[in-house]
Structures are given as structure tokens and as C-alpha cells.
Write a structure and sequence with these properties.
Layout: H1 29-52, H2 59-71, H3 73-102
């Protein structure tokens, strides 16, 4: 979680920011949802851009991943979760296809 005033990473159960001393109050649910929606949109945009690049050219994908790791931990974690989801989805589809092909 980040402090709303100074944007420094703080522990989820903190009552005050260790950096600026601001009292930490829970965001209203609609604000939490808006933040999650914005983050999700960013991740999907980034993934779409990376996937739109040539598959044999990993340079763009590597640069995007490097930028996310360095600059935004929260967005990086979302990125990893989405990539993991799609890898699992592809494996499931491949398994289904193999079962149909093998007559199982």
C-alpha cells in the first residue's frame, strides 16, 4: 500500500506513514475499485502492446518488464498475475485439444 500524501510504500496495517506521518485511512470502496480498474487497464494495455510486437523480438517485452519492475511494484505484480493467468489458460486449452485429438 502507498501513502496518499507522499506516495511512499507502507505496510497494509499501518496507522501512520513512516515517511511523512500522515494518518492512514482506508479508501472508500468505490475509490479502491477505481484504482484497481485503472491498474488493470494499464496492465492490459501493456500486455497488448507487448503481444503486438514481433514474437521473435523479445526486446520490447523485456524493456516493459524492466520498467515495471523498477518503477511500479503494484503494476509489476498485476503484470505477473495476468501473464500467469494466460499461461495457465493456454495450457488448459492445449490439454483439451490433446484430449480431443487422442480420443480421450
Amino acid at each position: 500500500m502507498k501513502c496518499l500524501k507522499c506516495n511512499v510504500e507502507i505496510e497494509n496495517n499501518s496507522k501512520f506513514c513512516n515517511n511523512c506521518g500522515t494518518k492512514i485511512e482506508e479508501k472508500p470502496l468505490h475509490v479502491q475499485f477505481d484504482d484497481s480498474l485503472r491498474t488493470c487497464s494499464k496492465v492490459w494495455y501493456i500486455l497488448g502492446y507487448a503481444r503486438g510486437c514481433r514474437k521473435d523480438d523479445k526486446t520490447v517485452e523485456n524493456e516493459i518488464e524492466k520498467l515495471l519492475r523498477v518503477h511500479d511494484d503494484y503494476l509489476w505484480q498485476w503484470y505477473l498475475d495476468v501473464v500467469e493467468f494466460w499461461k495457465n489458460w493456454i495450457k488448459e486449452k492445449d490439454n483439451e485439444k490433446n484430449k480431443k485429438t487422442n480420443g480421450s
